[in-house]
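User: Could you go from structure to sequence for me? I need the amino acid at each position, not a summary. Structure tokens:
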């Protein structure tokens, strides 16, 4: 079922939503990515931007051939499935392919813009489920076990043997408007002049309640038939950031490895440069394609934190500004922006249809609010790009609401400080930051299952709350935050309480005998091999210690080993030796730890006394025993940052991930411990390099080979019970571009 989101305040819509913008592109951006059994085609020029996904012709794991067209403009597009016309046909014998060189942008009547491409069919096919309009509605269907609201039904506008137009009229179309019936999105099927294919169309017998039957007929005398597909909309076109606007021309102190990467990025001739450019726009960064081709605050700021050493001031400030613009009246920051026709749908569901398609801003997450100040402190205080730019930035007037950036940020600072005070006054679990009332999610693991059904997330409370406070303290000390009535010293004292007491509330200890017993039980339940236990490092006397994924409402830990310590390593100011030891212990081979030969898992329930979590967080779960690329980047950058602290008098490596300290942490004096941390870093990078081809995607699962005792990359969508899949490109997965691989002394993409 669809979830409805809480919004604390309405925000003024910008006139930018009502007028088309001109893309900041001097040349066409075009590239292709094959991932998870799908061919993904990306295109952006001065007309529009679009991603086209088509089931790969060699994919035999799925019966329908799926077509997705997603446009950042209005987060709109179309989804349709092609099936064999005759049920008796071998389902996998139907092949649908995009003809090379035919994907192009197009202008049509009534200011509609979009893309078109020619598809070849090797056999007769019929059009299956089709959704036109909102990408969010498409996502709901794919990941919601076929959930689709009748309000999104399309109409058969016109057709003949060589042409079909399927039309979705926008929900907020004004009655009586002469052009109203043309405001929406359209899916066109047509037969090019050089094609022998035909279209056979039979209208439904019950209006929009019964879809038409649309068949694609390929003459038996030809090897294939060609059908031209076009998807267009009259939504606002976004102004894209080209690669010279995005990336620095040369390194600001990251060494030769980063320098080599920047040369390819700024020139725009590297694959990562094109992919990141496609996801970034002048007024916001988008999270990933195709499912999240819109604004997400958390994704923007984590991606920004990792990529910042490679980015220009203009690009960084575009991302920061987008987050600030969407803050609400309390200071909370927007998690997801819903625009276009789906915004109309939400407004109708919330009995506010008079708002039309005014954007809906979702503030349900508790982590998003805490990521802005650390990003700003890193930029304005630590990186060369941000030096001397704070005053002008904070003096800007917002366009999506009234006020200057300084006034809006002041609300967020006060909001976060107020939420941190109760724990500083009484450091008990009940004063930690829990999920918002009525919400089952609140951090990046945005599912009930992802938190193990917990209430107090580990990353929010041990890493992000103190990080936001420390960043506030640093900006206040530097005089970079104007007109905020807070004392920097007092803010630092509150941060110290969180740093000193929050982690201990999440600590889990399992004695050696019980740990071994649970591991043996786990490999059986997870269909793994007991030979994997030969690599375990469970002490015969000390047992296992790690940090819980979350705490329940009663303070009990959800005993799941997890990767979220990476947040502490990147954002933390005073990371203890004990904490770092838990990191070293976690970066052991799976199932004792998190590392496989294809990456670092984000969850491992092997030691959990609640054995049901083995099924809840299995390899088919979106946040289960799977690999998220950005989590690996976060952990890798965090380890580099912590190890750099032991060389406190030098400029930080990897483009400034570690600030210069007056003296190194005490644990730096223990050469053996520092070596163990370096060894953990080495093991992590070995795991990362095992699935190098997947690094820019969102998430992947594993298949285990009992004969070899090794793991292979598996497509999550084919395993997931609800069809949850991975985006082919994901913004925060490109964080590796700002990191130097210690094995090669170069960035992984250079």
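Assistant: Here is the amino acid at each position, in order:
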């Amino acid at each position: 079922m669809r979830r409805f989101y809480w919004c604390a305040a309405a925000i003024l819509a910008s006139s930018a939503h009502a007028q088309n913008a001109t893309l900041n592109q001097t040349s066409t951006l075009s590239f292709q990515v094959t991932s998870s059994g799908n061919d993904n085609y990306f295109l952006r020029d001065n007309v529009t931007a679009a991603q086209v996904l088509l089931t790969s012709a060699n994919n035999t794991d799925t019966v329908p051939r799926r077509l997705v067209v997603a446009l950042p403009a209005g987060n709109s597009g179309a989804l349709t499935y092609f099936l064999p016309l005759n049920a008796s046909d071998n389902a996998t014998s139907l092949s649908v392919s995009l003809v090379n060189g035919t994907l192009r942008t197009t202008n049509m009547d009534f200011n509609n813009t979009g893309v078109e491409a020619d598809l070849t069919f090797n056999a007769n096919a019929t059009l299956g489920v089709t959704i036109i309009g909102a990408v969010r509605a498409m996502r709901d269907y794919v990941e919601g076990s076929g959930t689709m609201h009748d309000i999104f039904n399309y109409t058969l506008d016109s057709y003949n043997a060589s042409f079909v137009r399927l039309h979705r009229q926008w929900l907020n179309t004004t009655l009586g408007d002469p052009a109203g019936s043309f405001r929406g999105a359209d899916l066109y099927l047509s037969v090019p002049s050089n094609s022998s294919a035909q279209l056979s169309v039979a209208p439904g017998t019950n209006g929009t309640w019964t879809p038409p039957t649309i068949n694609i007929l390929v003459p038996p005398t030809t090897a294939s038939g060609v059908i031209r597909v076009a998807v267009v909309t009259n939504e606002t076109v976004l102004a894209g950031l080209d690669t010279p606007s995005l990336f620095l021309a040369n390194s600001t102190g990251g060494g030769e490895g980063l320098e080599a990467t920047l040369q390819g990025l700024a020139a725009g001739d590297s694959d990562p440069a094109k992919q990141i450019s496609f996801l970034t726009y002048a007024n916001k960064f988008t999270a990933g394609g195709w499912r999240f081709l819109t604004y997400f605050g958390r994704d923007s700021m984590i991606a920004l934190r990792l990529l910042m050493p490679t980015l220009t001031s203009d690009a960084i400030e575009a991302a920061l500004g987008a987050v600030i613009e969407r803050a609400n009246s309390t200071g909370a920051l927007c998690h997801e922006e819903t625009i276009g026709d789906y915004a109309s749908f939400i407004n109708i569901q919330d009995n506010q249809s008079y708002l039309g398609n005014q954007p809906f801003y979702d503030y349900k997450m508790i982590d998003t609010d805490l990521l802005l100040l650390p990003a700003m402190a890193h930029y304005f205080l630590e990186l060369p790009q941000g030096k001397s730019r704070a005053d002008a930035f904070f003096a800007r007037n917002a366009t999506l609401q009234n006020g200057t950036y300084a006034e809006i940020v002041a609300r967020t600072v006060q909001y976060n400080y107020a939420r941190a005070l109760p724990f500083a006054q009484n450091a008990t679990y009940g004063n930690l930051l829990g999920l918002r009332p009525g919400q089952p999610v609140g951090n990046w693991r945005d599912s009930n299952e992802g938190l193990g059904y917990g209430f107090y997330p580990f990353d929010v409370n041990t890493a992000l709350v103190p990080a936001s406070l420390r960043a506030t303290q640093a900006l206040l000390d530097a005089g970079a935050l104007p007109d905020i009535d807070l004392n920097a010293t007092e803010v630092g004292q509150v941060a110290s309480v969180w740093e000193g007491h929050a982690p201990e509330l999440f600590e889990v200890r399992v004695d050696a005998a019980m740990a071994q017993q649970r591991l043996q039980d786990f490999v059986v339940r997870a269909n793994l091999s007991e030979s994997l236990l030969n690599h375990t490092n469970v002490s015969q006397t000390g047992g296992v210690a790690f940090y819980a994924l979350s705490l329940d409402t009663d303070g009990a830990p959800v005993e799941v080993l997890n990767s979220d310590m990476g947040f502490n390593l990147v954002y933390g100011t005073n990371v203890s030796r004990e904490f770092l030891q838990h990191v070293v212990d976690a970066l052991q081979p799976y199932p004792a730890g998190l590392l496989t030969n294809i990456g670092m898992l984000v969850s491992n329930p092997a030691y959990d006394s609640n054995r049901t979590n083995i099924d809840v967080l299995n390899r088919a779960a979106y946040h289960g025993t799977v690999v998220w690329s950005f989590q690996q980047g976060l952990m890798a950058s965090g380890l580099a940052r912590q190890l750099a602290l032991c060389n406190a008098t030098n400029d930080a490596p990897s483009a400034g991930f570690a600030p210069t300290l007056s003296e190194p942490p005490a644990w730096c004096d223990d050469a053996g411990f520092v070596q163990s941390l370096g060894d953990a870093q080495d093991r992590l990078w070995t795991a990362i390099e095992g699935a190098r081809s997947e690094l820019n995607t969102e998430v992947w699962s594993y298949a285990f080979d009992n004969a070899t005792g090794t793991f292979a990359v598996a497509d999550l969508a084919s395993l997931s019970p609800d069809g949850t899949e991975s985006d082919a490109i994901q913004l925060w997965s490109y964080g590796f571009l700002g990191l130097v691989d210690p094995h090669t002394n170069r960035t992984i993409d250079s």
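One structural detail worth keeping in mind: The mean pLDDT is 89.
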